[in-house]
Amino acid sequence: MKLYGSYTSPFVRHCRVALAQTGQNYTFAEADQATSGKLSPTKRVPFAEVDGLVLHDSAAILKYIREQAGQEFFSSVQDYDLFCLANTLLDTSINLFLLSKDGLTPEQSSYLTRQQERVDASLVALEKRDWGQVGADVSDGELRLACYLSWAIFRKLITITDWPNLQAMLARVDQHPSFANTHPALG
After folding, report:
1. Which pLDDT belongs to residue 135?
2. Where does residue 118 rank: exposed (0-12), middle (13-18), buried (19+ CB within 10 A)?
3. In CA terms, which of 28, 109, 136, 180 is 20 to 30 Å from 186?
C-alpha cells in the first residue's frame, strides 16, 4: 500500500495507527494540497493505492486495512455511531479552522455559528459518556475520536481541561504506542 497524506491530518493518522496495529507494510508519500488536488478527485488526504486499486477516503482505507488483517472494521453499531460522530467533529472543525485562515469566523456567519454549536454540543454529549476502560484493543470509533481530540488540541481549537472524561479517554488511548508515535507534532 502507498498511503498519501500529511503527518498532521487526523484522518491520515487513523490510517497510520491501523497500519501499525496490524503490522502491515506500507510506504508513506507526503501529499500537500497541490498533490492531492492532482492525484485525487476528492482533492484531500488520505488516499491510497493498493495493487492498482485507488481508495479515496480514510473509511475505505481503514476497511481495507482491517479486512486484510482479518479484523472487523466495526464490531457494533454503537462504535460505528461514535466513528460517525467523530467524523462530524472532524469535518466541521477542519472547515472552521480553514475558513478562519481566510478571515471567516462564526461571529460573521450564522451558518458558521451553527457549525461551532455542532462542535460544542457534540463535545458535551461525548463528555457525558461512560468511557469505562479503553483496553488493549482500541476500537475504530475510539481511535477516530482520539485522533480528533489530539488534532483539535494540537491546532488550539479546543481545550479539554474542563472535560475530565474526555481527558481520561484520550490519556488511555495515548498509552498505545501506535497512537502516541503518530502525534501530529512528531511529523
Report:
1. 65
2. middle
3. 136
Which residues, in sequence order, are CB contacts of 156 under 8 Å at separation 6+?
A: none
CA dihedral 142, 89, 76, 167 (to 10 degrees): 30
Residue 30 is classified by DSSP as E
pLDDT tens column, 59-84: 999 999 999 999 999 999 999 999 99
Q: pTM for the full model?
A: 0.96
Task: Please give the residue range of the domain that contains residue 26.
Answer: 2-68
Q: How confident is the model at residue 131 (pLDDT cuts 50, 70, 90)?
A: confident
**Cα separation of 103 and 177, whole Å?**
37
